[in-house]
## 1
Amino acid sequence: MPHVLVLQHPDIASCDLSDFPKLVPYSERVVRIDVPAGFVLPEAAKAILARQQIDYALLPDQSFADLGLIVSDMDSTLITIECVDEIAAGVGLKAEVAEITERSMRGELDFEQSLRQRVALLKGLPEEVLQNVYDNVLSLSPGAEYLLAECKRHDVKFMLVSGGFTFFTERLQQQLGLDYAFANVLEIEGGVLTGRLTGRIIDAQAKADLLLQHRHMLGLQPQQVLAMGDGANDIPMLRAAGIGVAYRAKPKTQAAADVCIQFGGLEAVRGCFR
């Protein structure tokens, strides 16, 4: 299959791309350059692109409609926040919990252990705090609505798989019309968080397992599945997909991905394809 170098910027025509020959913008924000299989972008070229905040990807030349499934992390990927950190603000522990979250996402802590540690700190919070986070703090990442609209237009299924909580994934699934959603269940008794989780833990391996399960269920080839995430617990999922996208991600996650989006929003996922 032919390969392409895809360059993306909100105003690509205004960028200095004199080091890249014979460029014709594919759209206002995307340039596609045919390259031979095995092409490696020189470090000097990467530096030129980074200075101008241009995202790039080296990929097989595929149509977006060739995909069958996108699997996405939730926190700091489909949405801009880490929900557990914002819930912790309700007990004045946002800074403490956010530090644990950051270390976990960098791959410095065991995910399940750190998740249970953070959830234990939420004990005693009323369920209304979760609703307040959803209504007043949570926001979609830039380009999310466009990407989801393109998925519907091209019949690409969308699965949200999160190490966060079903309270949020279920509401996002209903609000956005997502095909599938999986996350961890916060135990709530009498309208109050107990500080415990119930059921299966959605950790790094569970994310990868769910991707493979749905790929097989939908009868898709590996290259028809794209996964995107930002943290270390997304790495097995990114590797299990035909195309792994690190979205504004931690260094370990970037190193494991096929594509890194550092400057653009989620519209850049769509822009990687014809």
## 2
Amino acid sequence: MARTRVPSHLSILLLLAVLSMCAHSSASAGDDGSSGTGVDDGEGRHARAAATVAELLSAHNAARQAVGVPPLTWSPQIAGYAKDYARSRRGDCTPRRSPLFYFGENLFVGRGRHWNATAMVASWVAEAQWYDYGSNSCAAPPGAGCLRYTQVVWRNTTQLGCARIVCDSGDTFLACDYFPPGNYGTGRPY
């Protein structure tokens, strides 16, 4: 079966994610996400949250642009559902599907707390290397798949809401929910 080559702009996105993650992990921010000053800065926290939303949308929409589908918009309501679910996973940090089946969903768990949005989404977009559009099939190795990638680029999906938490273990958990959901029927994602 033929494999689809990862477009060069997706490779660049993956490289930027790794570089950004490295830069983020060496930053001076405290482990709780604060600025490290010891002062609870509500404005700073709001700015960081807005930057994370912009980064999540940018990473998703770069992958969508690469295959010619319209960009996603942020839904605070869907993000609220994702946040509730992410908080419920704080104790075990297990990437188990939520019961919200009217949404598509991608989950990410990474060791440690220094993961940024671009790196997390890049892990899903990297599945494009195994997806073959011509046959609408996935040639992923055992334990891997293409469904997270195809959800990111699903043509009919228009809204995104995500939540990132640090679990009790100190690891990072990201839940992204999509509406309308993708990966249904036998059609191609784009």
